[in-house]
Design a protein that fits this description.
single chain, 191 residues, mainly alpha, Four Helix Bundle (Hemerythrin (Met), subunit A), 6 helices, elongated
């Protein structure tokens, strides 16, 4: 019986396995996009954008959200459900703030009369928008998942004692955090 338990403990949960496959796919997508960016920058009319300061502020916000999601996992494991819900909700709010700051950053480009797409734009500007926009979509997905988990944690009808949903959400959230750090450093280095 103990042998069966040891085998069960060594298996990865199907949701976690699926997440890792998805993360691998997302890494390949962003590696391809940033590689294409590097290759395309040899074009004669290539221009680079200065990173708005608000993007650096958004970096601090998403880093803080990684701390809060990790605290949520810790509190779930300790069965401190009030703190768990609080940290989960804080993480979702910080994710939303990150997205708002991203929009503000792109609006700053617009106020400087920098066109990211269409007539008068430069391919480099469109790359920045596409790459940051795809990251934003992944953050939106994470915020939605966090909101659903937070809502379910407040349900009186459902009681979930499995840490898997919050662990999967935390892993994904840390991933989008690390991905953003990579992207902002990449754009800063490429300017």
């Amino acid at each position: 019986m103990a042998e069966v338990m040891n085998v069960q403990r060594k298996k990865i949960h199907p949701h976690k396995f699926t997440l890792w496959v998805a993360i691998g796919s997302i890494i390949m997508m962003f590696a391809g996009l940033t590689s294409a960016f590097i290759v395309k920058r040899s074009q004669p009319n290539w221009a680079m954008l200065e990173i708005p300061r608000v993007f650096w502020v958004s970096t601090l916000v998403i880093l803080a959200s990684s701390v809060t999601i990790q605290l949520a996992v810790k509190y779930f494991r300790e069965r401190n459900m009030d703190r768990y819900r609080s940290m989960l909700t804080t993480t979702a709010v910080l994710g939303f703030i990150f997205l708002v700051l991203q929009v503000i950053g792109f609006m700053q480009y617009r106020s400087m009369d920098i066109r990211l797409v269409g007539a008068g734009s430069n391919a480099s500007f469109s790359f920045v928008l596409a790459i940051a926009g795809l990251h934003g979509l992944h953050v939106i997905g994470g915020v939605i998942a966090l909101a659903i988990i937070a809502i379910r944690s407040n349900s009186t009808r459902r009681r979930n004692y499995s840490p898997v949903p919050v662990e999967v959400a935390a892993t994904y959230w840390h991933f989008v955090d690390i991905l953003w750090i990579y992207l902002i450093l990449f754009f800063n280095w490429m300017k």
